[in-house]
Amino acid sequence: METTRLEDVAAEAAPLFENRDWRLHADGLEHRDTGYFIDRDALAARRPDGHWEWPLHLSEKSWCGVRSFREAFSAALGAFGIAPDRKLTLSFALGFGTRVGGAAPDAFVPLADLVRLRAPDLRPVVARPLVAASA
Question: What's the structural domain count of the chain?
């Protein structure tokens, strides 16, 4: 009969990495507050255009801060031997956008909000009379 030591169970349950928002376990990445879970086997998921699924998907979540997610996602890739590539950086940039200011560490604006066309200004234009130049 095989016995399991309490220390072995605790070590197995202990996170491999954690930060203020995320915990990395042997079976995947978990958001601490929401319980949102990315299975280890799904971490390297790509879209048909080669962009990484999770940075693009999680950029749509209001509770997901880019800095803590990027740190945890990077730790997960390293822990599970998944090689990042150029499309990973592009995926974060496309999803989370560019920081446009603010003191908050996760004060990012989605790229779409930066390039969205604004409605044209349709206020009536008042014509000014031309003044003749004196000779």
Answer: 1
